[in-house]
Amino acid sequence: MNNEKDRVTIYQVAKAAGVSLATVSRVINKQGSVTPATRKKVEDTIASLGYRPSGLAQALATNRTTNIGVVIPSANYVYIANFLNGITDVAKEKGYSLTLFSTSHSREEALQMIEKVISSHVDGAIIFDDQLDSEDISHIASYNVPAVVIDQKVSGEKVANVLFNYDAILDQTIKRYYSRRGDKKMSFLHVHNAGRLLAHAEKKFIKAHEEMGKDYAIINCDDSYTRTYNYFCEYFKTNRKGFFIAYRDSIAAAVLNAATDSGLNVPKDVEVMSLVGTKYAHIVRPTLTTFSIDMNEVGKRAMYMLTDLLNHSLVEKTAKFDAELVRGGSTIDRSGSDPDYR
Amino acid sequence: MNNEKDRVTIYQVAKAAGVSLATVSRVINKQGSVTPATRKKVEDTIASLGYRPSGLAQALATNRTTNIGVVIPSANYVYIANFLNGITDVAKEKGYSLTLFSTSHSREEALQMIEKVISSHVDGAIIFDDQLDSEDISHIASYNVPAVVIDQKVSGEKVANVLFNYDAILDQTIKRYYSRRGDKKMSFLHVHNAGRLLAHAEKKFIKAHEEMGKDYAIINCDDSYTRTYNYFCEYFKTNRKGFFIAYRDSIAAAVLNAATDSGLNVPKDVEVMSLVGTKYAHIVRPTLTTFSIDMNEVGKRAMYMLTDLLNHSLVEKTAKFDAELVRGGSTIDRSGSDPDYR
DNA sequence: TTGTACGCGTTATCAA
DNA sequence: TTGATAACGCGTACAA
Asked: CA B47 to CA B49: how far, in whole Å?
């Protein structure tokens, strides 16, 4: 019945209620003064006609969409899902909808998404993409789209940043490792195009080793649990020990399982840790030691910053999240003053 | 500089290029005929002014948003993230954006989201929410929003369905279990408000047991890895064996880890399986046996169905996904003709 | 090939 | 308190 019928417009409501559309608009937006009697009359006809205001037309008229654009690489990673979830919670609280712009590790595609964000008329954007550089982000800002950028320092009047800090904890962990007679060779798992977070940590890893004059390895591996698992099953046929740092839990879990399944003891023979802590870390056995950052909190924070930015009430334009060392069973505990790791 | 400037409109482009806005519109949409010369002229001024068409105004004028609404419960579950990822891939391919409407296990909120979907003017919707009943969905359809509904049969001219089928495999598995001298008591982990999929499976579980006159248990537990883990650590202090069916990998992993950490052998003492298979199943040790459905595929399929629906080219309005038994180490293999499970 | 004028469904500014 | 009427930025018959 209702099927091919067009959308009920405010005009039809006005006609049916015998008022002008201006009055209907006032009733909808609960502003301006309307007689209780006419208000009721309008509300009744709205209900009986099943009228729903067109968000589109409202947005066009008010220049506000109550819509936030979220740019992320693939929603498939658990830490991204957590991030998204944090955003979602706050968005709901603040009355915003989210439009997803998912990019998959290609700068070209990311740029295309930025264009889409601009024409999509969102009120603001949260950008978590590893392929874009500051210039690309500035581009979106020049179009007057307030943005919160994750894991990258971009300045601009309507741009805020959420930064991650791995430096201190990474440096400390590595140096403590060697000072407490860490005797396994440390390897950093490099993933091509995995983004800024990893690249930064890798640099820090290398720098710390060079400062101490220690030998290290960079191992290229795929951004896939299965392929990494298979790779390391091979690897452990000839290499029977090592200390590995991977950027995602899932990748770290692959190394850990490969070690265990190869008959090696974790953490005695092989130690593993991850740069981003998610639930995976608690589920595997032994549990994973991680440099953890609560991505759910990051998402929340980013969204709060964005709403503040939209209200012109954001004072501190940069938020910093320090990675926290969460100890699991995948590494030997060297925190005590009298290390017992024989 | 560009900051408080208003958006560049098609009108400004027309003026700067010395043509009418209709011509600019033609250039943008690459339709109608335009002289190469004027085309170039327009394109140049578009570039120099940095003009971007307003998706809003376009949508209002064409009555098409190229936007799909996706209704899901919390993006935090891995299987939902997979689902979302499948949708994302196809959406990108077909040129649609996604607007997220996340509901958290409350019917009231879900209804509110439906209202939002209607006023958001999306071209179509994919609905995966366990709290909504057919009537609620029909409501959205009556507003002329084509929809693909997951895990629920709803009929309507512009409604398609993706259904899950656990019946056969669940029934078969349970019956085979008992016929092959399955001697552990089977327990079904009930989670309050966890939705239709679980409720359906639970009914089937009970029915199968009653048909065979076998004893069983329903265990209430939280929809949280940690709380379930703690609960079962207690549980295994007094109960030293059992066969457990949980609806998510994460919950199943909690039982599995609690068993192992309590010194029990999986699958000898305790067997566990899950109703939805994700990567978790491969990462835990022993690996999880699951009734798996590839949620990424479900997402893809749903999105394909929706685009077909929008093109009026959808012939089969119902897609069925049969759960597949993926054997892991968390259960004893009873598939062989000569079972060896002593 | 190009331009004019109207419509899309609202909000908002005036008068009345 | 109410009602015309002009934006909002664009697509598109229709005319030129």
From this structure: 6
Q: Name the 3-class secondary structure at A219.
A: strand
Contact B283, A253 (CB under 8 A): yes
pLDDT of the residue at A2: 32
**A55, A75, A143: residue with CB nearest B84:** A75
Q: What is the per-residue pLDDT for A70? A: 97
Rounded to the nearest 10 degrees, what angle do helices A196-212 and A167-179 cross at? 40
Q: Which residues of A touch B119 (CB under 8 A)?
A: 52-55
In this complex, the residue of A2, A88, A99 whose CB is nearest that of residue B98 is A99
Identity of residue A160: A
Nearest to B109 by CA among B126, B127, B131: B131
**Are B287 and B298 found together in one domain?**
no
Gap from B22 CA to D12 C1', Å: 9
Mean pLDDT along residues A208-233: 95
Mean pLDDT of B234-257: 96
Assess whether B126 and B207 both reside in one domain: no
Residue B243: alpha-carbon gap to chain centroid: 27
Question: Which of the listed residues A43, A62, A81 is the one where a domain comes to its end?
Answer: A62
Domain hosting residue B175, numbered range: 167-292
Min Cα separation B116/chain A (Å) = 9
Given CB atoms, is B110 within the 8 Å cutoff of chain A? Answer: no
For chain A, what percent of residues have pLDDT higher than 90?
79
Test B225 with A285 for CB contact under 8 angstroms. Answer: no
Yes or no, beta carbons of B56 and A53 under 8 Å apart = no
If asked whether residues B180 and B265 sit together in one domain, one would say yes
For residue A5, the model assigns a pLDDT of 53
User: Which pLDDT value is given to residue A93?
Assistant: 94
Q: Is the pLDDT of residue A1 over 60?
A: no
**Are B89 and B171 in the same domain?**
no
d(CA A247, CA A275): 4
User: Across the interface, do B143 and A2 touch by the CB < 8 Å criterion?
Assistant: yes
| Mean pLDDT score, B122-140 | 90
The fraction of chain B above a pLDDT of 90, given in percent, is 79
pLDDT, mean over chain A: 92
Domain finish residue from B270, B292, B314: B292
Residue B5 has what pLDDT?
A: 52
In contact, A153 and A161? CB cutoff 8 Å: yes
Separation of B33 CA and C3 C1' (Å): 14
